[in-house]
Amino acid sequence: MTARSQNTTDPVRVAVIGAAGRMGRTVRDAVEAAADLELVGGFDLGDDLGDLAGTQVAVEFAVPDVSLDNVTHCVEQGVHAVVGTTGWNERKLAALRATLQEHPGVGVLIAPNFAIGAILMMQFAQQAARFYESVEIVELHHPGKVDAPSGTAARTADLVGAAREAAGLGPVPDATTHDPGGARGARQGGIPVHSVRLRGLVAHQEVLFGAEGELLTIRHDSLDRVSFMAGVLTGIRSVTAHPGLTVGLEHYLELERS
Q: Which among 73, 80, 103, 141 is annotated as catalytic?
């Protein structure tokens, strides 16, 4: 099955999977407020997605354990998907790519973060990575977040680690030999990542770079979930023009050209 066609003058028909969650409710409000979009469905845990009620683009903010099944179902129905659920490892991405090969014309965007500032933070960190011997990432979120590190932190670490490797830099210097409690954080792409879960926070991250006599800190703060909506709406409006799998909203924003 291929993606359903659409008259460009008609609003894009959108469904939200994970509609009862904090992000899902915010996405529903944003879609309903957009003149070029139409909210046609909302699904949550335990609901039968069925044929997705004539949906053209599904926005998925669920939990990692069910996200692959949800997105696979969308693709099999010829429905494009914009995915904000984290926990997408290489195994899951490979499975999704295989499904997409059977449904040419369907597009899926998986975005670790939809805030424009967070995307710029990742891009800036990637550019800075080759200049600094030391780098660590601290991500801070509300205590209701179920995964650690965050998808944004993992993506940032992978980008920074790849940039360091391309520049010929060795491992991040660290003389620690005794850390039974894991105080030095997790390692993602060779980069130490520290996760904070604290009441009152929404989504925050800082990337710290260090060299002799110098410290560079790149930080982004989302103070309200509405900060993600500009990116979500961009994803909804763009995914139909990008068949196959895209990881990272920056590819829709053409930031890789800079």
A: 141
